[in-house]
Amino acid sequence: MLARSVLADSPLAVALPEGLSPRTVGFYLAQDKGYFTAAGVAVTLTAPSGDRRSLDTLVQKKVDLAVELMPIALKRREAGERIVHVAQIFRKAGMEVVCRPTIDQPADLKNHVVGVWFGGLESAFYAWISGLSLNPFGGPGSVTVLRQNYGLEAFQRLQSDCATTFSYAAPLEFAAADIPLQGLKQYRYQEIGQATLEDGLYAREADLAKPDRVAAFAAFLDAARRGWQLAHVSPKTAFDLLHADPKFASVDPAVLRQAIDAVDDLLALDQGPMGKLDPDAYDRTVNLLLTAAPDPVLTRAPAGAVSDVVVKAAR
C-alpha cells in the first residue's frame, strides 16, 4: 500500500445509497472523526436524489466508488457497465418481509398479498415461496405479488398483507407510520437461507489497473473500517451523530438505537474485518439471481465481477 505522503490527500468521491442514516453512519463517522484525512484521502460523500441509484454516478464517472446492493450491481454489469465489486460492507443481509399478525407462519401466506421489491431484488422472495411450495402467480390458494415501492404506503392502505423492508429500516418506517412493529411477524431472508448479498463497495474496472487508484481505494476502506468499528464499540457515538441531524432529532431514541443495532448485526464485525467477500454467500447470491425468479435477474454467471485487489492492499 502506498504511504500517506505518496497518496498526498488523494481526492475521492464516494456515492452512498442514502445520506446520513443508520445504514451509512460508519462512513460519516469516519469523515467526522478525520479518519479519511489521516489515511491520506480527501473524501466527499454523496447520495443519489430521486429514483437514481449510487451506481448511476459511478458509471457516469461523477464519483470514484459507490456502495450498492449486489443484485443491482450484478444486473448492471450484465447490461454492460464495467463495474467491479471490491469490498463487502454488510456480511449478512437485512432484507425481510414484515407481515400482519394473522400470518404467524410462512405457510399462511397463501391467499394473501405480499409487497415485493423488483428491479433485481425479487429473487429471494421467489426462492422462499418456491421452497414453501406456494404459487406466487395469484388466484385462489396462491400468493398474490404486489410490486412495492420503497416505503409502507401499500401496507398502510391495506393493499398488502406483508411489506418488504430492511431490518434497519423497519423500526424507523413503522414508527413513522405509527404502526407498532411489535406483534408483527418478521421473516428475514438471511435466517430463511435465501439471502442475496447487500451493500458492497464498487469501482470502475479500468481504475483497478491503476496502482495509485487502488492505493486510494484501500486507504478509503481502511478509514471506513475505523468508522464502522467505532459505531460497533460505541453505538452511542453513532447515535449522537444521527440524533444531531434534523432528520432524526425527533425520532424516538429507542427506535433509533434499534435501527443502529440492526446495522451492526449485518456488519458482524466480531467475525472479522469489513471488506472480505464470503465466496459461499457470493455463489448463493449468483445462483438465486440466475434461477429464483420467473424472469431471472441474470441470464449467465458473471465473469470478472469481483476483485480482491483493494482488500489485499488495505491494512
Automatic annotation (TrEMBL):
Pfam families the UniProt entry points to: NMT1 (PF09084)
Pathway(s) this gene product operates in, as recorded in its UniProt entry: Cofactor biosynthesis; thiamine diphosphate biosynthesis
Reactions catalysed, as given in the entry: N(6)-(pyridoxal phosphate)-L-lysyl-[4-amino-5-hydroxymethyl-2-methylpyrimidine phosphate synthase] + L-histidyl-[4-amino-5-hydroxymethyl-2-methylpyrimidine phosphate synthase] + 2 Fe(3+) + 4 H2O = L-lysyl-[4-amino-5-hydroxymethyl-2-methylpyrimidine phosphate synthase] + (2S)-2-amino-5-hydroxy-4-oxopentanoyl-[4-amino-5-hydroxymethyl-2-methylpyrimidine phosphate synthase] + 4-amino-2-methyl-5-(phosphooxymethyl)pyrimidine + 3-oxopropanoate + 2 Fe(2+) + 2 H(+)
Ranges that cross the membrane: none
Domain of life: Bacteria
Sequence ranges assigned to domain SsuA/THI5-like in this UniProt record: 22-238
Keywords associated with the record: Iron, Metal-binding, Pyridoxal phosphate, Thiamine biosynthesis, Transferase
Quaternary context: Homodimer.
Function noted in UniProt: Responsible for the formation of the pyrimidine heterocycle in the thiamine biosynthesis pathway. Catalyzes the formation of hydroxymethylpyrimidine phosphate (HMP-P) from histidine and pyridoxal phosphate (PLP). The protein uses PLP and the active site histidine to form HMP-P, generating an inactive enzyme. The enzyme can only undergo a single turnover, which suggests it is a suicide enzyme.
Family statement drawn from the similarity comment of this UniProt entry: Belongs to the NMT1/THI5 family.
Protein name: Thiamine pyrimidine synthase
